[in-house]
């Protein structure tokens, strides 16, 4: 098949539909890509950039190009093109998330264990949030430190406070404390880690990618959608799994293998995350849009003065 003129950046699936987006994110959140060496990822980047430049190596197949784009999308930041750290990639969310979440759900009774695993989880989340931020909005080391401290403190206060408050509550309620802590911390962690976007605005473009300015309202919309996605990602495993474990632990055979409860929860969390990571990422388009009429007055007037009413919507990368 002739590949001259092949557009490697053309979406393989329709990104305007949920099913199209979920196919896309199942592709790029494939945990197997996290096992590949950096040299293989760099090879994929070279092939993608060669294709963009119109120079496809002889003998390259369409499937090789699609696979190279899959590796590129899974490991390189969409704004900067830099290789992302392994732990922060969405392809690492399943193995990393299942281990940490499984431990949080297992060791929910002991305050020291709650403190330790909530700290580990927020460290993991902070790195993921920083890695998947909008690359056009830099953040200082001090801001990163403040964001990390604030989110971790929120998670610990929520988890320890609820843990103590639910001592006399039904056992199932206590099992849901980790989710309450994770959800509340996400509402702090993500906005704090991306505070520069809220303070200074996020770069917005027209449909052809031409930069039009920066918008704080666009940033607020994008970050809100990311918070919803992250909470949704964790919710099924952290809400349904405690119900399952509560019922299983009533059986005698489960009472004899308490040492396997943690590995069992880790495995079951993984089963939830395999589906929930791509599903949650697919809730909203990554290339988000907002009507010009909803932008700040000064930006709205700037666009109108240059383009009249030709531009009705602007676009931006909301991050993941």
UniProtKB/TrEMBL annotation:
Predominant localisation class: mitochondrion
Listed NCBIfam families: mtc
Record's keyword annotation contains Transmembrane helix: yes
Pfam families, alphabetized: SFXNs
Organism: Clupea harengus (Atlantic herring)
Annotated TM spans: 227-245, 257-280
One of the GO biological process terms: serine import into mitochondrion
Protein name stated in the entry: Sidoreflexin
């Amino acid at each position: 098949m002739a590949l001259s003129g092949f557009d490697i950046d053309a979406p393989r699936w329709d990104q305007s539909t949920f099913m199209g987006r979920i196919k896309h994110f199942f592709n790029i959140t494939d945990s197997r890509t996290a096992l590949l060496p950096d040299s293989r990822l760099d090879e994929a980047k070279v092939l993608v950039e060669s294709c963009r430049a119109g120079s496809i190596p002889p003998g390259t197949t369409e499937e090789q190009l699609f696979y190279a784009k899959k590796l590129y999308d899974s490991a390189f930041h969409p704004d900067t093109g830099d290789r992302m750290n392994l732990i922060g990639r969405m392809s690492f969310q399943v193995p990393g998330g299942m281990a940490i979440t499984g431990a949080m759900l297992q060791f929910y009774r002991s305050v020291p264990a709650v403190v330790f695993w909530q700290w580990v989880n927020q460290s993991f989340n902070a790195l993921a949030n920083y890695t998947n931020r909008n690359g056009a909005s830099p953040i200082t080391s001090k801001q990163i430190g403040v964001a990390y401290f604030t989110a971790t403190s929120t998670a610990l206060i929520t988890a320890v406070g609820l843990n103590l408050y639910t001592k006399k509550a039904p056992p199932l309620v206590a099992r849901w404390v980790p989710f309450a802590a994770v959800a509340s911390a996400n509402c702090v962690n993500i906005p704090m880690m991306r505070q520069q976007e809220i303070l200074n605005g996020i770069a917005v473009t027209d449909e052809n990618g031409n930069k039009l300015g920066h918008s704080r309202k666009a940033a607020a919309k994008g970050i809100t959608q990311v918070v919803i996605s992250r909470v949704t990602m964790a919710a099924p495993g952290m809400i349904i799994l405690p119900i399952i474990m509560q019922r299983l632990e009533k059986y005698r055979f489960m009472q004899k293998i308490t040492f396997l409860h943690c590995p069992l929860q880790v495995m079951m969390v993984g089963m939830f995350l395999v589906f929930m990571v791509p599903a949650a990422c697919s809730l909203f388009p990554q290339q988000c849009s907002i009507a010009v009429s909803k932008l700040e007055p000064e930006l709205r007037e700037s666009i109108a003065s240059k383009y009249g009413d030709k531009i009705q919507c602007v676009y931006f990368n909301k991050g993941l």
